[in-house]
Design brief:
It is a single chain. This protein is mainly alpha-helical. It has one domain. The protein is 72% helix and 0% strand.
């Protein structure tokens, strides 16, 4: 998807008969600019992923490289962030011992999703790579592997499948209906909903952001009289929506991480 900066010139062509050009789904798939035609094609979305990953790793390294009993500002911030993930996400859904074991995994998911989401409101980046299915799907598969592995480890393969596919207390003749439903719900829909929820929110948020800025640019450049005044309203709405999108970026990271923790906790608790 093109950045807000690239969308503004598109809006300015209205005076030449082009009208106001809103973003389209095609812009989610920019042309590659490196190793074109190869398996390892590299486009703008890939570059944003690399930038977000390097920035996240750098921040974590700077916060944790010199730990001490009297923490500095960077260490305090790092410990506060990890404490939030530990207490508010891991321990909220799992027993304390299990929460400590899965803290690195859940923290990786939370901060990884947050870093890739927040690029949607950063100047010159202006798109979350989570708006494409690839990364959300990979993270959802990792979550699926984690909770299935925990369930098998805690109860054994046979008991884990029996607990999930054959609900206790139900008449045996109902298993014809219940077993396919439980299979779809536990092993298919969980990763699918994790993927779609994250991707859809990032797509919708970026399209709305881009649309607001395009309208503001178009009204300022092509509008006359009162229409230019209306641009002030759309500009205010644009910046308000930037703040809202920052909130959504954090919320979606929290939801993805907490649901992963819940699924792992359920797999541990099933008996």
């Amino acid at each position: 998807m093109s950045s807000i900066a690239s969308a503004l010139p598109a809006a300015s062509t209205g005076g030449e008969g082009g009208g106001m050009h809103m973003p389209t789904l095609d812009e989610l798939f920019p042309a590659p600019f490196w190793t074109v035609g190869d398996w390892f094609e590299f486009n703008r979305i890939d570059l944003i992923r690399v930038i977000a990953t390097v920035a996240l790793v750098t921040l974590i390294y700077l916060g944790a490289r010199r730990t001490s009993l009297v923490p500095g500002r960077g260490q305090s911030t790092f410990e506060l962030a990890m404490g939030f993930v530990h207490k508010q996400i891991c321990e909220a859904a799992m027993p304390p011992q299990l929460a400590r074991r899965y803290l690195p995994f859940i923290a990786t998911i939370f901060f990884g999703v947050l870093a890739l989401n927040i690029t949607g409101v950063l100047p010159f980046l202006n798109v979350s790579s989570n708006a494409l299915v690839t990364v959300p799907m990979i993270l959802a598969i990792c979550a699926w592997v984690a909770f299935v592995r925990q369930g098998i480890k805690s109860h054994g393969l046979g008991h884990y499948l029996a607990d999930n596919l054959f609900p206790k207390g139900a008449p045996k003749w109902m298993y014809v209906l219940l077993t396919p439903i439980e299979f779809l719900s536990t092993f298919i829909l969980r990763p699918v909903t994790l993927t779609v929820r994250l991707m859809a929110n990032m797509i919708a948020g970026h399209f709305l952001l881009t649309a607001f800025f395009v309208m503001t640019s178009y009204l300022l450049i092509e509008g006359a009289g009162a229409l230019k005044g209306l641009a002030l309203l759309t500009a205010a709405a644009s910046f308000a929506f930037v703040v809202f999108e920052i909130f959504i970026a954090g919320l979606q990271a929290f939801i993805f991480a907490i649901l992963t923790s819940v699924y792992i906790g359920l797999a541990q608790a099933e008996h």
